[in-house]
Design brief:
mainly alpha, globular, 3-stranded antiparallel β-sheet, Leucine-rich Repeat Variant, 414 residues
Length: 414
Amino acid sequence: MGEDPLIAAVRSGDVKAVAALLAAGADPNTVDGHGTPALCLAVDAFDLPVIEELRMADQPVQLNRAAADGRTPLLRAVDRGACEIASVLVSGGADLGLTDAEGRNALELARHWHLTGAEAELRRRSGTSEPVARRAVVDGWGNVCEELSLGGLTVRNGHTAILAELEPRYGIAPAFEELLGRALAEPDVDQPVWSATTLTLQGRRAPAVWAEAAALRGRPNPLERYCGAEVIRLINLFDESDDSPFDVPLVDLFLPWAAREEDPRVMRALTAGLSEAMDPRAEQPLPALTRHHDREVRRWAISGLHRPVAQGNREALTAVVACTQDTDALVREAACGAVAQASTDSPAPSDALAACLHDEVEAVRVTAAIQLFLRDDPRGDGVLRSLGPIGQDSPYYAAFHAVWYHHRALLPAD
């Protein structure tokens, strides 16, 4: 007797097949020949898209159903260091009180991995002294993390990030300096522990957190300064108060800080914070920052210039037009979106977009063509028609919604 079709689709990571089988009535709680539920198999494979399909099935998936080894999907996600999957399961209502064979709940398991270290725990479990295979991977949320494999076991380095997210749910609030110390152990600020740490700190919404974060601006270690800037940025970004109480203090703090900051990682957080601020003073350094040597700083600066460009600010428009010829394709693409905010009274913005129709990178060409179309300029129509039918698998699917619902139709070629 062959393997159940849903289990086979989950094993192969075939999201379309999983969706089709579930739509046809397949049970999302199906188990394989060893009693392992489909959801557990998807967790073991770090397959967030398949997990999401199982969660969205008409028949509710059992988030707490354990495999034969007694581990629930959440405990498996924690064990694997799959921080984005653990987050999805927790937010979906996974039981935080369930334990593994050694009596550890999700928090205790995450703490064990954090204290032991991924490599040491892999060696303990595998019993081998062979070299650990390491590679950078992109997780289900688009974050870069490290994957470690040894003796047939594979984990990712998200355990400390998971610990930071779980602690508040168990009523635990480590000191600011303790959380900072965990993050400092990882020199790459793009790793999951950094986003988990800064998000955890901003989530406390306490005046002391702002003060401690602001105090880091004078530290000699740029990683500490990055943490301070990012926490403050996130506090302002996620504040839901009607009067935006953090906006002006952020600008007061970030303007002089950005003027003297030399580390590009810190400048990304500072520029992002200024770009997101509503205080008009935040716009002052952005045109110059579109010429910064770090491409992420340039992209954030462009993001913050959308509003002044739409308001007719000539300096802002000049800056983003120049960025349509940037050496980095992602910056050029972002610049196309900002240029398009300009008034249609002048031909200069549309001419800048038209020049991008010949860019060597397709995404830039398509972005420019879409923006021209929305400005009722037909010069980019040929680029859009050349793409053929745009389905849900296309990277341009979301952007094309604006084209499909525009008053001007994209007609076929003559």
